[in-house]
Amino acid sequence: MNKEVRLRLKRLRTQMERAGIDYYLISSSDFHHSEYVHEYFKARQYFSGFTGSNGTLVVGKNWAGLWTDGRYFVQAHRELEGTGITLYRMQEEGVPDIPQFLQTQMKQGQTLGFDGRTVSCREGRRLEKALEGQGISLMVGQDLAGESWQERPSLPCYPVSLLSTGLSGKGMADKLKEIRKALKAAGAEYLLLSQLDDLMWLLNIRGRDIAYCPVALCHGFVTMTQVYVFLQKEAVTDAFREYAQAEGIIWKDYHEITNFVAHYPYEGSVMLDEKSVSYSLYSLVAQRAACINRNNPTELLKAVKNETELERIRQVYLKDSVQLIRFIYWLKKKIGKEEITEVSAGSYLDRLRSEAEGFLDFSFPTICAYGENAAMMHYQADESRDCKLEAAGMLLVDSGGQYMGGTTDVTRTIVLGAVEKEIKRQFTAVVSGMLRLSHSVFLSGCTGRNLDILARLPLWELGIDYKCGTGHGIGYMLNVHEGPQNIRWRYSQEIKEEALRPGMLLSNEPGVYQEGSHGIRIENIMVVQEDKKTQDGQFLAFETLTYVPIDREAILLEELQPMDRKRLNDYHQEVYQKTAPYLAEEERKWLAEVTAPL
Predict the structure, then answer these.
(1) Which pLDDT belongs to residue 383?
(2) Would strands 511-514 and 471-473 be described as parallel, antiparallel, or unpaired?
(3) Which of 169, 195, 370, 415 is found 20 to 30 A from 595 (Cα to Cα)?
(4) What is the 3-state secondary structure (H, E, C) of 456-498?
């Protein structure tokens, strides 16, 4: 593979020379800056060999570098070996970001190229600002990577489906009223919307253009009186045509968006989110109208689930928890007695989940990582790297599903045999942090950054940290990761912190990742709800949605504080009460044993 990557880079450099481009940037994004993308858009993976979901490749005439975040340091180090590509570990001390690097490396008269459709407005403007005044040109209209990519897959296109209000809980007309209210408050007349899950939420439709994410490739343009939707023609069904006519939706071909924004008769400001609108679309709009950079109002509205959504989500998480319990029972009974590998274990869990009522798809590829492989946060086993499971150590399993009525995400680290005491100490700290965050009570107005320390402190006291956030939002029959809510400790000027609100879903997933040794992660999903109200204000708390036992075999009781022990016992009691009625007799007996009070 590494030899093939070198040949691909050679072809790309030939294209660069013909176009007069000195450095060429390839992002991981599609035209909507989605977290997960279709194979058509995986140019960065094609030219680097790095398979992680986040990373940017920069190619020069005699050099290439890849920037990625802490989730992928271990994986990127392995996958880039022998490619000649230098790994840049983002946010590590002494590591420049891409604009800073190019600012110091590029010379007057040189040209930076990239496909402006796959670079966000925010990143494009940062590059523009870093290089201005240095006599450096930007060439953003050519897809050199695509031109050099042999046998590139076709652009995905599947028919869209409609979501009834019995599932969505709110019609499009009511959602539009709230959006237009937000536009008016911001002094904007229009909203340019490219974020796919936001568009699915607004239109009450779903698609299949991206694996694991039920979205359709589209753009939207909202005015105070009209809604334009740009969909591929082949995606538009008769049912959607009728729906569009009834709801007043004006639909146009997906590829008309560029011409539309370039010639629309603007009579006011355009709101857009620089993180999700492409640099190319922004540049066209900015030439003819003032732009207001804000988080899409759809994002916050979508994040706060309504009562219909929450009722269905609770049902879905219970069904999903039952299937994972069945998997853990099977694994515990079979390990050491028959051959099981990472791939076969993951496949068994996938089959169990697919048998659950209302199952539609998986919400991401199941992560089944044994031993040192678990140190890679987003490790993917396949036929080329499929580790046999032994009756020793631990297996980390991160998985989820898309159901009619919800999207799930859950992680458990499962003991398969003997575990070193120091690893148990770390496991116990992860459990403590997860429980403390689960039981936090906080004032309305707090953000996730106010709470992150609760999950991280037990690990920090051991001198250990994990290079990612503690929690992310969860979609409703949409992306498994969504914002604007999150739980992380690091402050960033580029990320607007959003106060936690009742109805928001959040993951709770502290962990340990020690390269060459092991990985630990425990993840539950929670929903924010109102708690007590006093003279000091409205307090909020979390309701846990995930009910799967935590493996007590890796817990050091002497390291577990009395309150944490009580919380774990209480949680396990709830796990048994909620899930036991759905299990077979032998599964119930086993569950009673593993959830018995410590």
Answers:
(1) 81
(2) unpaired
(3) 370
(4) HHHHHCCCCCCCCCCEEECCCCCCCCEEEEEECCCCCCCCCCC
Of the two residues 314 and 90, the one the predictor is more confident about is: 314
Residues 532 and 399 in one domain: yes
Q: Is the pLDDT of residue 217 over 70?
A: yes
**Alpha carbon distance 76, 386 (integer Å):** 18
Of the candidates 53, 50, 59, 46, the one whose C-alpha atom is nearest the C-alpha of residue 152 is 46
pLDDT above 80: residue 494: no
- Residue located via tokens 């010639």: 263
Among 278, 302, 326, which residue terminates a domain? 302
In a shared domain, residues 334 and 285: no
Rounded to two decimals, what is the model's pTM?
A: 0.91
- Say how many domains are in the chain: 3
Tell me the three state secondary structure of residue 9: helix
Residue 168 sits in the same domain as residue 131? no
d(C-alpha 130, C-alpha 561), whole Å? 50
Average pLDDT over residues 192-221: 97
Determine the 3-state secondary structure of 82 from DSSP: coil
Round the average pLDDT of the chain to a whole number and report it.
Answer: 95
Do 295 and 416 fall within a single domain?
A: no
What pLDDT score does 1 carry? Answer: 63
How confident is residue 488, by pLDDT bands cut at 50, 70 and 90? very high
**Average pLDDT, stretch 14-38?**
93
Residue 156 lies in a domain: no
- Burial (0-12, 13-18, 19+ Cβ within 10 Å), 369: buried
Mean pLDDT within 272-299: 95
Residue 155 included in any domain: no
| 210 and 231 housed in the same domain | yes
pLDDT at 75: 87
Alpha carbon dihedral 471, 475, 479, 483, in 10-degree steps, equals -50
Residue 587 forms part of a structural domain? yes
Reported as a pLDDT band with limits 50, 70 and 90, residue 148 is confident
**Residue partners of 250: CB distance under 8 A and separation at least 6:** 226, 227, 228, 229, 244
Write out the residue range of the structural domain in which residue 286 sits: 161-302
- Show the tokens assigned to 328: 């853990």
Residue 121 has pLDDT above 90, yes or no: yes
Provide the pLDDT for residue 71: 80
Q: Cβ–Cβ contacts within 10 Å for residue 558, how many?
A: 7
Whether residue 179 sits in one domain with residue 111: no
Residue 426 belongs to some domain of the structure: yes
Phi/psi of residue 360, nearest 5 degrees: -115, -45
CA distance 167 to 348: 30
